[in-house]
Amino acid sequence: MQNFLDIHALDFNYGERAALRQVSMQAPQGAFVALLGPNGSGKTTLFHILSGMRQAAAGSADIFGHPISRESQQIRRKLGIVFQSPSLDDKLSVKENLRHHGHLYGLWGGTLRQRIDANLKRFDLEARGRDRIGTLSGGLQRRVELARALLHMPSGLLLDEPTTGLDPSVRLDFWALLEQIRREQELSVLFTTHWFEEAERANLVGILDGGRLVAFGEPKALKSALGTEIVTITASHADKLAAELSERLNLRPGVKGNCIRFGDERGPELVADIMTHYGTCIETITAGRPTLEDVYIHHTGKPFAGGSPS
Amino acid sequence: MNLLLSSFTLVHREITHFYRDRARLIGVLLQPLLFWLLIGTGLNASFQPAGNENSYIEYFFPGILLMVIMFTAIFSTFSIIEDRRAGFMQGVLVSPAPRAAVVLGKVVGGALLGMLQGSLFLLLLLLPMLSLSLTFGGLLQMLLWMLITGFLLTTLGVLMAWPMSSTHGYHSLMSVLLLPMWIFSGAAFPMTGAPMWLRLIMQINPLSHALALMRGSLAGHSAPPHAAMSILFLLVCLTGAFIAALWLVRRR
Questions:
Q1: pTM of the predicted model, to two decimals?
Q2: Best of A55, A76, A89 to mutate (most B CBs within 10 Å, chain B)
Q3: Measured between alpha carbons, how far is B62 from B68 in angstroms, rounded to an integer?
Q4: ipTM > 0.90?
Q5: Shortest Cα distance from B161 to chain A (angstroms)?
Q6: What are B81-118's pLDDT values in tens digits?
Q7: Closest Cα in chain B, distance from residue A179 (Å)
Q8: Are B187 and B212 in contact (CB under 8 A)?
Q9: To which H or E segment does residue B204 belong?
Q10: From A40, A63, A64, B10, which residue has the greatest number of CB atoms within 10 Å?
Q11: Is the minimum CB–CB distance between A81 and chain B shorter than 8 Å?
Q12: Rounded distance, CA A78 to CA A83, Å?
Protein backbone atom coordinates (compact mmCIF):
# COMPACT_ATOMS: atom_id res chain seq x y z
CA MET A 1 0.00 0.00 0.00
CA GLN A 2 1.23 3.48 -0.90
CA ASN A 3 2.04 5.88 1.90
CA PHE A 4 -0.19 8.90 2.49
CA LEU A 5 2.91 11.11 2.61
CA ASP A 6 6.50 10.59 1.50
CA ILE A 7 8.41 13.81 1.89
CA HIS A 8 12.16 14.00 1.29
CA ALA A 9 14.46 16.96 1.95
CA LEU A 10 11.92 19.62 1.00
CA ASP A 11 13.20 23.21 0.72
CA PHE A 12 11.28 26.41 0.15
CA ASN A 13 12.46 30.03 0.12
CA TYR A 14 10.68 33.36 0.19
CA GLY A 15 13.35 35.40 -1.57
CA GLU A 16 16.40 35.19 0.67
CA ARG A 17 14.55 33.75 3.66
CA ALA A 18 14.39 29.95 3.93
CA ALA A 19 10.85 28.95 4.96
CA LEU A 20 11.45 25.18 4.84
CA ARG A 21 14.78 23.46 5.22
CA GLN A 22 15.36 19.78 4.51
CA VAL A 23 11.94 18.66 5.72
CA SER A 24 11.42 14.88 5.47
CA MET A 25 8.59 12.74 6.83
CA GLN A 26 6.60 9.61 6.08
CA ALA A 27 3.05 8.83 7.09
CA PRO A 28 1.12 5.66 6.19
CA GLN A 29 -2.41 5.66 4.79
CA GLY A 30 -5.01 6.34 7.42
CA ALA A 31 -2.58 8.44 9.46
CA PHE A 32 -3.78 11.46 11.41
CA VAL A 33 -0.90 13.91 11.18
CA ALA A 34 -0.50 17.22 13.03
CA LEU A 35 2.02 19.85 11.97
CA LEU A 36 2.72 21.84 15.11
CA GLY A 37 4.59 25.10 15.27
CA PRO A 38 4.23 28.81 16.02
CA ASN A 39 3.49 31.36 13.28
CA GLY A 40 6.39 31.57 10.87
CA SER A 41 7.59 28.03 11.58
CA GLY A 42 6.82 26.95 8.02
CA LYS A 43 3.73 24.81 8.63
CA THR A 44 1.45 26.81 6.33
CA THR A 45 4.15 26.85 3.65
CA LEU A 46 4.32 23.05 3.85
CA PHE A 47 0.50 22.91 3.66
CA HIS A 48 0.63 25.14 0.55
CA ILE A 49 3.19 22.88 -1.13
CA LEU A 50 1.21 19.71 -0.36
CA SER A 51 -2.04 21.27 -1.61
CA GLY A 52 -0.38 22.35 -4.86
CA MET A 53 -0.48 26.10 -4.32
CA ARG A 54 3.31 26.51 -4.21
CA GLN A 55 6.23 24.62 -5.67
CA ALA A 56 9.10 23.43 -3.54
CA ALA A 57 12.55 24.79 -4.40
CA ALA A 58 14.20 21.40 -3.85
CA GLY A 59 13.40 17.93 -2.56
CA SER A 60 10.44 15.73 -3.33
CA ALA A 61 7.01 14.99 -1.94
CA ASP A 62 4.72 12.11 -2.90
CA ILE A 63 1.08 11.92 -1.87
CA PHE A 64 -0.52 8.48 -2.18
CA GLY A 65 2.46 7.53 -4.34
CA HIS A 66 2.05 10.41 -6.81
CA PRO A 67 4.94 12.89 -6.99
CA ILE A 68 3.44 16.39 -6.60
CA SER A 69 5.83 17.84 -9.15
CA ARG A 70 4.53 15.63 -11.99
CA GLU A 71 1.18 14.08 -11.08
CA SER A 72 -0.61 16.99 -9.46
CA GLN A 73 -3.82 16.22 -11.35
CA GLN A 74 -4.17 12.75 -9.77
CA ILE A 75 -3.37 14.20 -6.35
CA ARG A 76 -5.95 16.98 -6.69
CA ARG A 77 -8.70 14.40 -7.20
CA LYS A 78 -7.63 12.42 -4.14
CA LEU A 79 -7.35 15.36 -1.75
CA GLY A 80 -9.91 17.49 0.03
CA ILE A 81 -8.61 20.82 1.26
CA VAL A 82 -9.86 23.09 4.04
CA PHE A 83 -8.22 26.50 4.11
CA GLN A 84 -7.63 28.71 7.10
CA SER A 85 -9.62 31.55 5.52
CA PRO A 86 -13.12 30.79 4.24
CA SER A 87 -13.34 29.45 0.70
CA LEU A 88 -17.12 29.51 0.52
CA ASP A 89 -18.95 32.15 -1.47
CA ASP A 90 -21.05 33.97 1.11
CA LYS A 91 -23.42 35.40 -1.49
CA LEU A 92 -24.43 31.85 -2.46
CA SER A 93 -26.42 29.25 -0.53
CA VAL A 94 -24.95 26.12 1.03
CA LYS A 95 -26.27 23.97 -1.83
CA GLU A 96 -25.05 26.36 -4.50
CA ASN A 97 -21.57 26.32 -3.03
CA LEU A 98 -21.53 22.54 -2.97
CA ARG A 99 -22.86 22.37 -6.53
CA HIS A 100 -20.11 24.65 -7.88
CA HIS A 101 -17.51 22.64 -6.01
CA GLY A 102 -18.88 19.38 -7.41
CA HIS A 103 -18.69 20.75 -10.96
CA LEU A 104 -15.06 21.73 -10.44
CA TYR A 105 -14.36 18.08 -9.55
CA GLY A 106 -16.20 16.77 -12.60
CA LEU A 107 -19.38 15.73 -10.76
CA TRP A 108 -22.76 16.69 -12.22
CA GLY A 109 -26.40 15.76 -12.68
CA GLY A 110 -28.01 13.08 -10.53
CA THR A 111 -24.74 11.84 -9.00
CA LEU A 112 -23.92 15.32 -7.79
CA ARG A 113 -27.42 15.88 -6.39
CA GLN A 114 -27.23 12.62 -4.45
CA ARG A 115 -23.81 13.45 -3.06
CA ILE A 116 -24.94 16.90 -1.98
CA ASP A 117 -28.03 15.55 -0.23
CA ALA A 118 -26.05 12.78 1.45
CA ASN A 119 -23.38 15.20 2.67
CA LEU A 120 -25.92 17.71 3.97
CA LYS A 121 -27.54 14.92 5.95
CA ARG A 122 -24.27 13.60 7.27
CA PHE A 123 -23.17 17.03 8.46
CA ASP A 124 -26.57 17.82 9.88
CA LEU A 125 -27.05 20.71 7.48
CA GLU A 126 -30.25 19.59 5.74
CA ALA A 127 -32.34 22.41 7.17
CA ARG A 128 -29.81 25.04 6.04
CA GLY A 129 -29.29 23.92 2.44
CA ARG A 130 -30.99 26.96 0.96
CA ASP A 131 -29.52 29.50 3.36
CA ARG A 132 -26.82 31.88 2.21
CA ILE A 133 -23.39 31.20 3.72
CA GLY A 134 -23.31 34.74 5.09
CA THR A 135 -26.25 33.97 7.40
CA LEU A 136 -24.59 30.91 9.05
CA SER A 137 -22.61 30.95 12.32
CA GLY A 138 -18.84 30.45 12.24
CA GLY A 139 -19.16 26.84 13.43
CA LEU A 140 -21.74 25.98 10.77
CA GLN A 141 -19.61 27.61 8.07
CA ARG A 142 -16.70 25.38 9.09
CA ARG A 143 -18.98 22.36 8.83
CA VAL A 144 -19.94 23.41 5.31
CA GLU A 145 -16.23 23.81 4.49
CA LEU A 146 -15.73 20.22 5.63
CA ALA A 147 -18.76 19.02 3.64
CA ARG A 148 -17.38 20.86 0.60
CA ALA A 149 -13.89 19.35 0.96
CA LEU A 150 -15.31 15.81 1.26
CA LEU A 151 -17.93 16.05 -1.51
CA HIS A 152 -15.74 14.35 -4.13
CA MET A 153 -14.89 11.54 -1.69
CA PRO A 154 -11.16 12.16 -1.37
CA SER A 155 -8.80 9.66 0.30
CA GLY A 156 -6.90 12.41 2.09
CA LEU A 157 -7.82 15.65 3.80
CA LEU A 158 -5.52 18.63 4.38
CA LEU A 159 -6.60 21.31 6.85
CA ASP A 160 -4.80 24.57 7.62
CA GLU A 161 -5.51 25.71 11.19
CA PRO A 162 -9.12 24.61 10.77
CA THR A 163 -10.44 25.82 14.14
CA THR A 164 -9.00 29.35 14.13
CA GLY A 165 -11.63 31.82 15.27
CA LEU A 166 -14.06 29.25 16.69
CA ASP A 167 -15.47 29.19 20.24
CA PRO A 168 -14.03 26.48 22.52
CA SER A 169 -17.22 24.38 22.51
CA VAL A 170 -17.62 24.68 18.72
CA ARG A 171 -13.98 23.69 18.38
CA LEU A 172 -14.57 20.49 20.35
CA ASP A 173 -17.59 19.68 18.14
CA PHE A 174 -15.47 20.19 15.05
CA TRP A 175 -12.80 17.74 16.23
CA ALA A 176 -15.41 15.18 17.26
CA LEU A 177 -17.00 15.40 13.80
CA LEU A 178 -13.65 15.11 12.06
CA GLU A 179 -12.71 12.11 14.20
CA GLN A 180 -15.98 10.39 13.34
CA ILE A 181 -15.57 10.95 9.60
CA ARG A 182 -11.94 9.93 9.70
CA ARG A 183 -12.87 6.55 11.18
CA GLU A 184 -15.91 5.95 8.99
CA GLN A 185 -14.13 6.80 5.76
CA GLU A 186 -10.62 5.64 6.64
CA LEU A 187 -9.38 9.07 5.65
CA SER A 188 -5.75 10.09 5.86
CA VAL A 189 -5.65 13.53 7.49
CA LEU A 190 -3.01 16.22 7.90
CA PHE A 191 -3.68 19.45 9.77
CA THR A 192 -1.61 22.39 10.92
CA THR A 193 -2.04 23.92 14.36
CA HIS A 194 -0.26 26.05 16.93
CA TRP A 195 -2.10 24.46 19.84
CA PHE A 196 -0.60 21.54 21.75
CA GLU A 197 -4.04 20.31 22.84
CA GLU A 198 -5.06 19.93 19.19
CA ALA A 199 -1.83 18.22 18.20
CA GLU A 200 -2.37 15.68 21.01
CA ARG A 201 -5.34 14.35 19.02
CA ALA A 202 -3.13 13.22 16.14
CA ASN A 203 -1.37 9.88 15.92
CA LEU A 204 1.69 11.48 14.32
CA VAL A 205 3.02 14.89 15.28
CA GLY A 206 5.64 16.90 13.39
CA ILE A 207 7.13 19.86 15.23
CA LEU A 208 8.35 22.65 12.99
CA ASP A 209 10.71 25.36 14.13
CA GLY A 210 12.23 27.97 11.81
CA GLY A 211 11.46 25.83 8.76
CA ARG A 212 13.04 22.65 10.18
CA LEU A 213 11.21 19.55 11.29
CA VAL A 214 12.79 19.15 14.72
CA ALA A 215 10.73 16.17 15.87
CA PHE A 216 8.36 13.73 14.22
CA GLY A 217 6.61 10.72 15.69
CA GLU A 218 3.75 9.46 17.81
CA PRO A 219 2.92 11.95 20.58
CA LYS A 220 3.38 9.23 23.21
CA ALA A 221 6.84 8.26 21.94
CA LEU A 222 7.94 11.89 21.65
CA LYS A 223 6.91 12.51 25.25
CA SER A 224 8.30 9.36 26.79
CA ALA A 225 11.66 10.04 25.13
CA LEU A 226 11.98 12.90 27.63
CA GLY A 227 11.65 10.58 30.66
CA THR A 228 8.66 9.77 32.82
CA GLU A 229 8.57 13.01 34.83
CA ILE A 230 9.49 16.57 34.01
CA VAL A 231 10.52 18.91 36.81
CA THR A 232 10.14 22.64 36.20
CA ILE A 233 11.59 25.22 38.57
CA THR A 234 11.43 28.98 38.42
CA ALA A 235 13.98 30.88 40.46
CA SER A 236 15.49 34.34 40.36
CA HIS A 237 19.07 33.01 40.19
CA ALA A 238 18.32 30.09 37.89
CA ASP A 239 21.87 29.77 36.52
CA LYS A 240 23.42 29.42 39.95
CA LEU A 241 20.76 26.98 41.12
CA ALA A 242 21.12 24.85 37.98
CA ALA A 243 24.88 24.62 38.52
CA GLU A 244 24.36 23.44 42.09
CA LEU A 245 21.73 20.90 41.03
CA SER A 246 23.99 19.35 38.43
CA GLU A 247 26.92 19.23 40.82
CA ARG A 248 25.24 17.90 43.96
CA LEU A 249 22.35 15.82 42.63
CA ASN A 250 23.96 14.76 39.36
CA LEU A 251 21.11 16.23 37.25
CA ARG A 252 21.31 17.77 33.79
CA PRO A 253 19.02 20.75 33.90
CA GLY A 254 18.28 23.05 30.96
CA VAL A 255 18.04 26.75 31.74
CA LYS A 256 16.11 29.46 29.92
CA GLY A 257 15.79 32.83 31.63
CA ASN A 258 14.62 32.13 35.16
CA CYS A 259 13.25 28.70 34.25
CA ILE A 260 14.98 25.35 34.87
CA ARG A 261 13.72 22.08 33.38
CA PHE A 262 14.86 18.48 33.45
CA GLY A 263 13.49 14.99 33.12
CA ASP A 264 13.86 12.59 36.02
CA GLU A 265 11.99 9.43 36.99
CA ARG A 266 11.91 10.29 40.69
CA GLY A 267 9.58 13.25 40.09
CA PRO A 268 7.74 14.11 43.33
CA GLU A 269 10.40 12.64 45.65
CA LEU A 270 13.05 14.71 43.94
CA VAL A 271 10.87 17.80 44.25
CA ALA A 272 10.63 17.26 47.99
CA ASP A 273 14.37 16.69 48.18
CA ILE A 274 15.16 19.86 46.25
CA MET A 275 12.72 21.85 48.35
CA THR A 276 14.39 20.88 51.62
CA HIS A 277 17.82 21.93 50.32
CA TYR A 278 17.09 24.90 48.10
CA GLY A 279 13.57 25.93 49.14
CA THR A 280 14.63 29.47 49.98
CA CYS A 281 15.82 30.38 46.50
CA ILE A 282 12.93 28.72 44.57
CA GLU A 283 9.78 30.58 43.46
CA THR A 284 7.83 27.66 42.01
CA ILE A 285 8.55 23.98 41.45
CA THR A 286 6.37 21.39 39.69
CA ALA A 287 6.71 17.80 38.57
CA GLY A 288 4.46 16.15 35.99
CA ARG A 289 4.20 13.89 32.96
CA PRO A 290 5.88 15.43 29.89
CA THR A 291 3.52 17.23 27.49
CA LEU A 292 4.01 18.14 23.85
CA GLU A 293 4.98 21.56 25.13
CA ASP A 294 7.89 19.94 26.97
CA VAL A 295 8.78 18.11 23.77
CA TYR A 296 8.74 21.41 21.89
CA ILE A 297 10.91 23.15 24.49
CA HIS A 298 13.27 20.20 24.60
CA HIS A 299 13.85 20.23 20.84
CA THR A 300 13.89 23.97 20.21
CA GLY A 301 15.31 25.25 23.49
CA LYS A 302 12.72 28.00 23.65
CA PRO A 303 9.32 28.58 25.21
CA PHE A 304 6.40 28.17 22.86
CA ALA A 305 4.90 31.31 21.33
CA GLY A 306 1.72 29.60 20.21
CA GLY A 307 0.05 28.63 23.44
CA SER A 308 -3.23 27.16 24.41
CA PRO A 309 -6.72 27.67 22.98
CA SER A 310 -8.34 28.54 26.30
CA MET B 1 -15.50 17.97 -20.60
CA ASN B 2 -13.91 19.07 -17.37
CA LEU B 3 -13.00 22.40 -18.97
CA LEU B 4 -16.58 22.97 -20.12
CA LEU B 5 -18.20 21.94 -16.84
CA SER B 6 -15.87 24.01 -14.68
CA SER B 7 -16.05 27.05 -17.00
CA PHE B 8 -19.83 26.78 -17.02
CA THR B 9 -20.01 26.67 -13.24
CA LEU B 10 -17.77 29.74 -12.89
CA VAL B 11 -19.87 31.69 -15.42
CA HIS B 12 -22.98 30.63 -13.54
CA ARG B 13 -21.48 31.96 -10.31
CA GLU B 14 -20.68 35.32 -11.94
CA ILE B 15 -24.25 35.69 -13.10
CA THR B 16 -25.75 34.67 -9.74
CA HIS B 17 -23.53 37.26 -8.08
CA PHE B 18 -24.67 39.89 -10.50
CA TYR B 19 -28.38 39.50 -9.88
CA ARG B 20 -27.94 39.23 -6.13
CA ASP B 21 -25.94 42.44 -6.02
CA ARG B 22 -28.32 45.27 -6.89
CA ALA B 23 -25.83 47.96 -5.90
CA ARG B 24 -23.51 46.74 -8.60
CA LEU B 25 -26.18 46.98 -11.28
CA ILE B 26 -26.96 50.52 -10.23
CA GLY B 27 -23.26 51.47 -10.14
CA VAL B 28 -22.58 50.09 -13.58
CA LEU B 29 -25.63 51.71 -15.22
CA LEU B 30 -26.15 54.89 -13.25
CA GLN B 31 -22.68 56.38 -13.55
CA PRO B 32 -22.57 56.11 -17.37
CA LEU B 33 -26.13 57.44 -17.53
CA LEU B 34 -25.15 60.49 -15.48
CA PHE B 35 -22.02 60.97 -17.58
CA TRP B 36 -24.03 60.80 -20.73
CA LEU B 37 -26.70 63.23 -19.57
CA LEU B 38 -24.38 65.75 -17.91
CA ILE B 39 -21.47 65.80 -20.35
CA GLY B 40 -23.73 65.19 -23.32
CA THR B 41 -26.11 68.02 -22.50
CA GLY B 42 -23.31 70.32 -21.41
CA LEU B 43 -21.38 69.98 -24.65
CA ASN B 44 -24.40 69.60 -26.89
CA ALA B 45 -24.75 73.31 -27.60
CA SER B 46 -21.11 74.13 -28.25
CA PHE B 47 -19.72 70.98 -29.85
CA GLN B 48 -20.55 69.63 -33.27
CA PRO B 49 -18.49 66.51 -34.04
CA ALA B 50 -16.62 66.93 -37.30
CA GLY B 51 -17.92 64.87 -40.21
CA ASN B 52 -21.03 63.88 -38.31
CA GLU B 53 -24.58 65.07 -38.70
CA ASN B 54 -25.70 63.96 -35.21
CA SER B 55 -25.89 66.19 -32.17
CA TYR B 56 -23.20 65.69 -29.53
CA ILE B 57 -25.46 63.77 -27.16
CA GLU B 58 -26.20 61.32 -29.97
CA TYR B 59 -22.56 61.14 -30.94
CA PHE B 60 -21.64 60.37 -27.33
CA PHE B 61 -24.21 57.52 -27.00
CA PRO B 62 -22.09 54.61 -28.35
CA GLY B 63 -19.16 55.87 -26.27
CA ILE B 64 -21.27 55.56 -23.15
CA LEU B 65 -22.33 52.07 -24.22
CA LEU B 66 -18.63 51.20 -24.40
CA MET B 67 -18.20 52.62 -20.91
CA VAL B 68 -20.95 50.35 -19.55
CA ILE B 69 -19.16 47.32 -20.97
CA MET B 70 -15.83 48.51 -19.61
CA PHE B 71 -17.24 49.07 -16.10
CA THR B 72 -18.81 45.61 -16.15
CA ALA B 73 -15.47 44.07 -17.09
CA ILE B 74 -13.73 45.97 -14.29
CA PHE B 75 -16.33 44.91 -11.70
CA SER B 76 -16.07 41.27 -12.80
CA THR B 77 -12.30 41.13 -12.55
CA PHE B 78 -12.01 43.22 -9.40
CA SER B 79 -13.06 40.29 -7.23
CA ILE B 80 -10.14 38.15 -8.48
CA ILE B 81 -7.69 39.88 -6.17
CA GLU B 82 -9.35 39.13 -2.84
CA ASP B 83 -11.08 35.95 -3.95
CA ARG B 84 -7.72 34.37 -4.57
CA ARG B 85 -6.09 35.10 -1.23
CA ALA B 86 -9.07 34.45 1.05
CA GLY B 87 -12.14 33.27 -0.75
CA PHE B 88 -13.82 31.06 -3.28
CA MET B 89 -10.93 31.11 -5.77
CA GLN B 90 -8.64 29.25 -3.31
CA GLY B 91 -10.81 26.18 -3.73
CA VAL B 92 -10.87 26.58 -7.51
CA LEU B 93 -7.08 26.78 -7.73
CA VAL B 94 -6.49 23.51 -5.83
CA SER B 95 -9.25 21.63 -7.69
CA PRO B 96 -8.58 19.52 -10.78
CA ALA B 97 -10.36 22.16 -12.91
CA PRO B 98 -7.99 23.37 -15.65
CA ARG B 99 -6.61 26.89 -15.20
CA ALA B 100 -8.10 27.78 -18.58
CA ALA B 101 -11.52 27.43 -16.91
CA VAL B 102 -10.58 30.21 -14.48
CA VAL B 103 -9.91 32.59 -17.40
CA LEU B 104 -12.83 31.35 -19.48
CA GLY B 105 -15.27 31.56 -16.56
CA LYS B 106 -14.34 35.18 -15.85
CA VAL B 107 -14.19 36.28 -19.47
CA VAL B 108 -17.43 34.67 -20.62
CA GLY B 109 -19.20 35.82 -17.44
CA GLY B 110 -17.94 39.40 -17.77
CA ALA B 111 -18.77 39.57 -21.49
CA LEU B 112 -22.31 38.20 -21.05
CA LEU B 113 -23.02 40.62 -18.22
CA GLY B 114 -21.58 43.50 -20.27
CA MET B 115 -23.84 42.61 -23.17
CA LEU B 116 -26.84 42.32 -20.85
CA GLN B 117 -26.25 45.69 -19.26
CA GLY B 118 -25.44 47.27 -22.61
CA SER B 119 -28.80 45.97 -23.85
CA LEU B 120 -30.54 47.63 -20.92
CA PHE B 121 -28.82 50.85 -21.90
CA LEU B 122 -30.04 50.42 -25.47
CA LEU B 123 -33.60 50.86 -24.19
CA LEU B 124 -32.79 54.59 -24.01
CA LEU B 125 -33.02 54.60 -27.80
CA LEU B 126 -36.79 54.45 -27.34
CA LEU B 127 -36.64 58.05 -26.08
CA PRO B 128 -38.39 60.19 -28.72
CA MET B 129 -35.88 63.07 -28.63
CA LEU B 130 -33.07 60.86 -29.97
CA SER B 131 -32.85 60.48 -33.73
CA LEU B 132 -30.83 57.30 -33.24
CA SER B 133 -32.53 53.96 -33.70
CA LEU B 134 -31.75 50.31 -34.28
CA THR B 135 -33.01 48.05 -37.02
CA PHE B 136 -33.39 44.35 -36.13
CA GLY B 137 -30.22 43.53 -38.09
CA GLY B 138 -28.46 46.43 -36.40
CA LEU B 139 -29.46 45.09 -32.99
CA LEU B 140 -28.00 41.66 -33.73
CA GLN B 141 -24.78 43.27 -34.93
CA MET B 142 -24.69 45.50 -31.89
CA LEU B 143 -25.08 42.51 -29.53
CA LEU B 144 -22.21 40.75 -31.26
CA TRP B 145 -19.89 43.77 -31.05
CA MET B 146 -20.80 44.26 -27.40
CA LEU B 147 -19.99 40.61 -26.70
CA ILE B 148 -16.62 40.74 -28.45
CA THR B 149 -15.75 44.02 -26.73
CA GLY B 150 -16.77 42.49 -23.40
CA PHE B 151 -14.49 39.50 -24.05
CA LEU B 152 -11.58 41.79 -24.84
CA LEU B 153 -12.05 44.13 -21.88
CA THR B 154 -12.61 41.33 -19.35
CA THR B 155 -9.51 39.52 -20.61
CA LEU B 156 -7.51 42.74 -20.19
CA GLY B 157 -9.02 43.01 -16.68
CA VAL B 158 -7.84 39.47 -15.82
CA LEU B 159 -4.36 40.33 -17.12
CA MET B 160 -4.23 43.39 -14.88
CA ALA B 161 -5.86 41.91 -11.78
CA TRP B 162 -4.06 38.56 -11.59
CA PRO B 163 -0.58 39.81 -10.65
CA MET B 164 -1.98 42.33 -8.13
CA SER B 165 -1.75 41.73 -4.41
CA SER B 166 -4.07 44.62 -3.51
CA THR B 167 -7.08 46.35 -5.02
CA HIS B 168 -5.20 49.67 -4.83
CA GLY B 169 -2.75 48.51 -7.46
CA TYR B 170 -5.59 47.51 -9.72
CA HIS B 171 -7.19 50.93 -9.27
CA SER B 172 -4.10 52.73 -10.47
CA LEU B 173 -3.49 50.38 -13.40
CA MET B 174 -7.10 50.89 -14.41
CA SER B 175 -6.80 54.65 -14.46
CA VAL B 176 -3.56 54.72 -16.46
CA LEU B 177 -4.56 52.00 -18.93
CA LEU B 178 -8.26 51.32 -19.33
CA LEU B 179 -9.62 54.84 -18.90
CA PRO B 180 -7.23 56.39 -21.47
CA MET B 181 -8.12 53.56 -23.84
CA TRP B 182 -11.73 54.62 -23.50
CA ILE B 183 -11.01 58.36 -23.90
CA PHE B 184 -8.85 57.79 -26.99
CA SER B 185 -11.30 55.45 -28.67
CA GLY B 186 -13.39 58.20 -30.21
CA ALA B 187 -15.91 57.82 -27.40
CA ALA B 188 -15.79 61.48 -26.39
CA PHE B 189 -14.42 63.11 -29.56
CA PRO B 190 -13.95 61.90 -33.13
CA MET B 191 -10.67 60.89 -34.64
CA THR B 192 -11.11 63.13 -37.69
CA GLY B 193 -10.15 66.42 -36.10
CA ALA B 194 -7.29 65.04 -33.99
CA PRO B 195 -3.58 65.70 -34.71
CA MET B 196 -1.58 63.03 -36.55
CA TRP B 197 0.18 61.47 -33.51
CA LEU B 198 -3.09 61.14 -31.64
CA ARG B 199 -4.78 59.58 -34.64
CA LEU B 200 -2.01 57.01 -34.76
CA ILE B 201 -2.60 56.11 -31.10
CA MET B 202 -6.30 55.89 -31.74
CA GLN B 203 -5.73 53.62 -34.75
CA ILE B 204 -3.88 51.00 -32.73
CA ASN B 205 -6.34 51.21 -29.82
CA PRO B 206 -8.64 48.18 -30.14
CA LEU B 207 -11.44 50.09 -28.44
CA SER B 208 -11.51 52.60 -31.37
CA HIS B 209 -12.38 49.69 -33.64
CA ALA B 210 -14.94 48.28 -31.23
CA LEU B 211 -16.56 51.68 -30.97
CA ALA B 212 -16.57 52.23 -34.75
CA LEU B 213 -18.41 48.93 -35.19
CA MET B 214 -20.92 49.70 -32.46
CA ARG B 215 -21.50 53.17 -33.85
CA GLY B 216 -21.99 51.71 -37.32
CA SER B 217 -24.78 49.38 -36.27
CA LEU B 218 -26.90 52.29 -35.03
CA ALA B 219 -29.18 53.64 -37.77
CA GLY B 220 -28.51 57.31 -38.36
CA HIS B 221 -24.76 56.80 -38.02
CA SER B 222 -22.56 56.26 -41.03
CA ALA B 223 -21.19 52.73 -41.49
CA PRO B 224 -17.56 52.28 -40.32
CA PRO B 225 -15.08 52.78 -43.18
CA HIS B 226 -13.13 49.54 -42.70
CA ALA B 227 -15.49 47.21 -40.85
CA ALA B 228 -13.76 43.98 -41.90
CA MET B 229 -10.34 45.32 -40.88
CA SER B 230 -11.75 46.44 -37.54
CA ILE B 231 -13.26 43.02 -36.81
CA LEU B 232 -10.01 41.31 -37.74
CA PHE B 233 -7.96 43.68 -35.58
CA LEU B 234 -10.28 43.16 -32.60
CA LEU B 235 -10.10 39.38 -32.92
CA VAL B 236 -6.31 39.46 -33.16
CA CYS B 237 -6.09 41.62 -30.02
CA LEU B 238 -8.55 39.36 -28.20
CA THR B 239 -6.64 36.20 -29.10
CA GLY B 240 -3.35 37.76 -28.03
CA ALA B 241 -4.77 38.96 -24.71
CA PHE B 242 -6.44 35.60 -24.05
CA ILE B 243 -3.24 33.66 -24.66
CA ALA B 244 -1.35 36.05 -22.36
CA ALA B 245 -4.02 35.61 -19.65
CA LEU B 246 -3.85 31.81 -19.95
CA TRP B 247 -0.09 31.93 -19.62
CA LEU B 248 -0.29 34.21 -16.59
CA VAL B 249 -2.92 32.16 -14.76
CA ARG B 250 -1.13 28.87 -15.43
CA ARG B 251 2.16 30.26 -14.20
CA ARG B 252 1.08 31.14 -10.66
A1: 0.87
A2: A89
A3: 10
A4: no
A5: 18
A6: 888 877 899 999 999 999 999 999 999 999 999 999 99
A7: 23
A8: no
A9: helix B196-204
A10: A63
A11: yes
A12: 16
